């Protein structure tokens, strides 16, 4: 699985410390991107944790380390990335939420800011978790596993910590209040707002 | 009467030997387009100089302050193409105060008077105003090509004038410019009827677009081969453009996703299929870029073209490692690849496995904060070294590196011309041995016999510079930051590298002694930049006094007009050779010695 590959690759870099490094996310989650890597070392400059010992062969090293950390990227023109590129990359910081599916061994992270509607979002989920497709049943879009016909109900945890059914509120409101998403199998979704009874059980159109 | 020797008669009058020589030389010059060669040719004697001047059609001016526009038009009478560069490269990293100079205005005034037949203009790091563009549009009747690279000072109203007035325009390329939003719908200004457009690139224009107008423009531009749109074009809209222009060879995709206020009528999976079909129909596509706000779900739509791609720029694409690997696995013909370090060492391994013809690789950092580890490292560099043996140019940002990986690249990639390694963490040694990075860079200059451009980083002692001076005989451009121990470092370079043209240094402990050691060299160089080093005002004054033909500018970035504590130390020294005296347009904070 891809997440496993990532773990073994980070081990290959020789930094055994990396495996024990704190990251945001559940075990098995891919360790890529700044969203997952904690910048604890540069932020706890006073304690001089971690690799400060390795860094300097000259005495000035540790003070340099302090200086670089406290400036925290405020050093003018360093690294030498064109301002144009830096600005473009920071325009979209993204709103990443974890997405889990019942039965899948690992979660994914999805940037809600990439989508403007529920339909786009569900399509994206379809792309991420290839085990199911979007089917339209009686004008409603549902996520279903074509192999066993199991239907998944998208739910989410909102700012208040409550688990809600995806789709009730306008998209933008959902995107703002959503903290994480879980695709529950229909049997588990008992208790959420009831769906209208469907006469035919098979997928269509 | 047979014409056995047609060139020895003109209007039936025999030519003098000099005239015959002239004609012969002119024929030879036809085969000497390269400016370097022509410069050499023109130095032989006065008449060769004159002949060369009369037959030169393109002039390249690497520093707009090295020569006045008047002198250029006096020497060359029939120029059709001008390439003009302004600010030094460190301006890109906000190290040059604004309003420093490099204005195009004084040039456009003179050029418009002398070269009515000017067809091509390429400007890099210059300040170009809307008025300048108006002059260009109004003056040069047969104007065909304009390329603006890293420029600023103009906006969409200037573009509108160019579009509207330059009827022969075939190339309009805007590359990494700052373009002001004058709220002019510039695309609509292109005249109706078929256009000559071959290349239209505006991916850097951060202004909304009239898509309707763009669509119609593309539809009536049958010669269009290169199209790079900005991020205000959605994926659905891009698809329409691709269907209208299946002949494109270069495509910049714009956002490659939905636009915030534009709902796409198609469901996502259908859109993806349609885009995929459009790519499949683009049989000539070899260069792909854009992906400004990519929705990763749509990335697989590019698979049909991957096998043909020679150039791929994903350096704005926020995608996962697996998503990248899927794409790259199809790209066997790739020669140029720009990516974000998000692809991680695993992604680089995938590149090394597939892209055996890779010539240029650039790995940009997603995160620019100094950290102990990042997603790419010596592991990825090593993989690239072993897999991409035809590599000629590399730019690599990382948080940590080893000498071994760099040495490996120096041995495996003998064709390297450009090696730029940026270890973001300053003063970082080899993370596995704790040693400085001297040996790695030493191996590069020693083993890569074609190397002309080098950028160094990490913990470096004077030894690294002694290697550069010893082996870097072809080196033309050198970039140094946070490196070296003493004046000896810079001295090694100035004494050892005879072909050095551009030397840019920041935050390194080189002072007046080092500066003095290069006195024999400075008139051979285009420029020397030293910021936050240890040179003093006095040291700079000495250089200015002793070397004619070199302009010495010093300025203090932070203290405009003030005297700081160490008022003797100079913040920034920018020195360049010039045929002119001190420039008249220097702002207050610039001191020309």
UniProtKB/TrEMBL annotation, chain B:
Cited InterPro entries: COI1_F-box (IPR041567), LRR_dom_sf (IPR032675), Transp_inhibit (IPR041101)
Gene Ontology cellular-component annotations: SCF ubiquitin ligase complex
GO biological process, alphabetically ordered: SCF-dependent proteasomal ubiquitin-dependent protein catabolic process
The COI1 F-box domain, residue ranges: 18-56
Signal sequence residues: none
Residue ranges annotated for the Transport inhibitor response domain, each copy included: 78-123
Gene3D superfamilies hit by this protein: 1.20.1280.50, Ribonuclease Inhibitor
Full protein name: F-box domain-containing protein
Source organism: Daucus carota subsp. sativus (Carrot)
Lineage, top ranks: Eukaryota, Viridiplantae, Streptophyta, Embryophyta, Tracheophyta
